[in-house]
Structures are given as C-alpha cells and as structure tokens.
Amino acid sequence: MKKILFISTGVVVLAVAVWYFFIKEPTFNATDGYLVNLNDKGVIIEGYDPVAYFTDNMPVKGNEQFKFKYHGATYWFASAEHADLFKKQPEKYLPQYGAFCGYAVSIGKLRPVDPTIYQIENGRLILQHTKEAYDLFNKDLKASVVKADKNWPGLESTRVGKKVEFDKPASAPTASK
C-alpha cells in the first residue's frame, strides 16, 4: 500500500514539474517602463542577436559575453562588432512589438515568438510565433502591419508595470484585415 502511494505521489510530482517547466508559458514583469518579451534570464529574443537578422540575413544565436541592456531587455550579440552596431543605432535593430508575435499583436494579443520565424519589413524586424502566424500575417502584410502598429501602444500601456502572461492562442486563426 505504501509503495502504491509513493509511486502515485512521484507520478503527480513529475507531471506537475513537466507542466511547469515545459508546457506552462512563462510570466514576467514589464521592466523599466517597457513591455518586452523576455526569458527567465531577462534576455530578449531567446538570446538571438538582433543585428544578425539584418547583417547576416538569418537568425544567429548571441553570446552572453557580448550583452547590452536597452529598454528593459538584455540583448545578446554574436560579436563585439554587432554589439557596437546596436549601441550606435538601437532603434534600427529593435524587434518590433517588444519581440512579441507580430500576428498576435495585429489581432490584439501577446504571444511568444520562435526567433527563427521572422521577416524584415520596411527595415523593421518582425518576429512570429509559428509558421501559421507568419502566413496569416502575410496574407495582407500592409494591413497586418497597420493593425499591429495600431494595437501595440494599447497592449503596451495596459500591461507595463504588471505581471505579464501570454494570451491564449486564437481558437480559429483569421487573417488580420
């Protein structure tokens, strides 16, 4: 009987741990007056180098050795040269919408991103949560960008200084028109 109770308790503890570490989406506080999508270390874009999207035309993992804090987020860079480029012109390399999913912002939500799903649109780095979000955002790219630009200030202002959780995914994705 004790053996069954011990095994049952172990299974429950394991299930809770798996949910907490692998399934539950993170929560965090908006910092320094900015709403930015950070990991548990306070790093934005999961440590990918924002400059590399522009200079290398691809996502490149940054290195903690080359880091810089800006607008409440710690950025990692692949090289000292990239860090210097960012420091000189941060607005040029910032991910749009606080590094939240562009499609989600266009429909008034906050969702995490996959740093490998991105685009540079009119010199702006826009990240997406999934390939499906990317496709929906690009069905009418100009309208999606206009909607995201319109929604972002409201999303940011209502969540800055508060505990931030990702919104639930849309049950049936629709093109942002």
Description:
By secondary structure, the chain is an alpha+beta fold. The protein has one domain. It is 41% helix and 18% strand. It has seven helices and six strands, in the order αβαββαααββααβ. It has helices spanning 2-23, 52-55, 80-88, 90-93, 102-106, 131-139, 141-159, and strands at residues 27-29, 63-70, 73-77, 114-121, 124-128, 163-165. The strands form three sheets. It has a two-stranded antiparallel sheet with strand order 1-6. Mean pLDDT is 85; it is low at 15-28.
In a nutshell, what does this entry contain?
The protein is of the alpha+beta class and 177 residues long.
CA radius of gyration: 18 Å
Mean pLDDT: 85
Proportion of helical residues? 40-55%
Biggest β-sheet description? 2 strands, antiparallel
Shape annotation: globular
Give the strand order of the largest sheet, numbering strands 1, 2, ... along the chain.
Answer: 1-6
What is the count of distinct domains? 1
Sum up the structure in keywords.
globular; two-stranded antiparallel sheet; single chain; alpha+beta; two-stranded antiparallel ribbon; 177 residues
Write the layout of secondary structure elements.
Blueprint: H1 2-23, E1 27-29, H2 52-55, E2 63-70, E3 73-77, H3 80-88, H4 90-93, H5 102-106, E4 114-121, E5 124-128, H6 131-139, H7 141-159, E6 163-165
